[in-house]
Amino acid sequence: MPGALELPAGIRAGFFDLNGVLTPADIHVTAWRDAMNEFLRQWEKVEGIEFESFDERTDYALYIDGRRREDGIREFLKSRHITLPETAAGESAVFSVQGLSHTKEAMVRRLTAVNGVMSYQTSVRYIRGLLAVGIRCAVVSSSTTCDVVLQATGIGSLFDYVLDGVTARREGLASKPEPDMYLAAAMALSVSPAESAVFEDAIAGVRAGRCGGFGWVVGIDRRGQAEQLRAAGADVVVRDLGELTLPA
């Protein structure tokens, strides 16, 4: 009988979120903070509503993490009782969901180019351990800059399949916490959800794995939200993938 930190018998594939699981989410959190605060300061001037800054811990975890960018923007704006059109032209573009989305993506690309991106070596070691015993591995990320990050870190070649935010939008897949993206990845690798493990640091991503009926859902607690990850459906919660037992 496997222990809590051992890969259960019958698992044939592992699906990994990117930011917070394979790489630090710092660049994305910074880009979200700067994009949203820039917008909120302008909103204050136009609407006369007192500026309340984007909280990197609470706002990111509750409304942004794991979701497709536009969905995260809508959820965050809803929490501030702000409604914006989907699109706008010219100088008004920042006052739209798509305008904010483009601003955030541009910030990520700029920060990545300037600062680079590292990968968690414990995560890389764990994935190599899975590959060594024939477990197939895929990246399942809502990010539309997934390709940039994988190229910057040099870990893209480890994976049999990558499903990112660009593919999800093209194929009409709902973002996490819906299980659509993980189910599509399982289909691409010809495995059932019950034969697959999900590795997530986002509450929305853990919920997606649980709702999709995946065989093992691992929550990675990078921000002190272990209880929330368990409540969302994680079978086990660790602070780092290095705590998991490598398959023999």
Fill in the keyword field for this structure.
10 helices, single chain, alpha/beta, 248 residues
What does this protein structure show overall?
By secondary structure, the protein is of the alpha/beta class. 45% of the residues lie in helices and 10% in strands. The chain has 10 helices and 6 strands, in the order βαααααβαβααβαβαβ. It has helices at 26-47, 58-64, 69-79, 97-115, 121-132, 146-153, 165-171, 180-188, 203-211, 226-232; strands at residues 13-16, 136-140, 161-163, 196-200, 216-220, 236-238. A 6-stranded parallel β-sheet has the order 3-2-1-4-5-6. Helix 1 packs across helix 4 (97-115). The longest helix is centred in the first third of the chain and has 22 residues, at 26-47. The radius of gyration is 18 Å and the shape is elongated. The relative contact order is 0.18. The mean pLDDT is 92.
Q: Any chance you could write out the topology, listing elements then pairs?
A:
Elements (H helix, E strand, L loop, with lengths): L12 E4 L9 H22 L10 H7 L4 H11 L17 H19 L5 H12 L3 E5 L5 H8 L7 E3 L1 H7 L8 H9 L7 E5 L2 H9 L4 E5 L5 H7 L3 E3 L10
Parallel strand pairs: 1-2, 1-4, 2-3, 4-5, 5-6
Helix pairs in contact: 1-4, 2-3, 3-4
What percentage of residues falls in helices of 4 or more residues? 40-55%
Spans where pLDDT lies below 50 across 5 or more residues: none
User: What's the assembly state of these chains?
Assistant: single chain
Helix and strand run: EHHHHHEHEHHEHEHE
User: Could you say which overall geometry the principal axes of the C-alpha atoms support?
Assistant: elongated
Strand line-up in the sheet with most strands? 3-2-1-4-5-6
Number of helices: 10
- Sheet of most strands: 6 strands, parallel
Rg estimate, integer Å: 18 Å
Q: Which structural category do the helix and sheet elements fall into? A: alpha/beta
Strand content: 5-15%
Q: How many strand elements?
A: 6
Mean pLDDT: 92
How far apart lie the N and C ends?
Answer: 14 Å
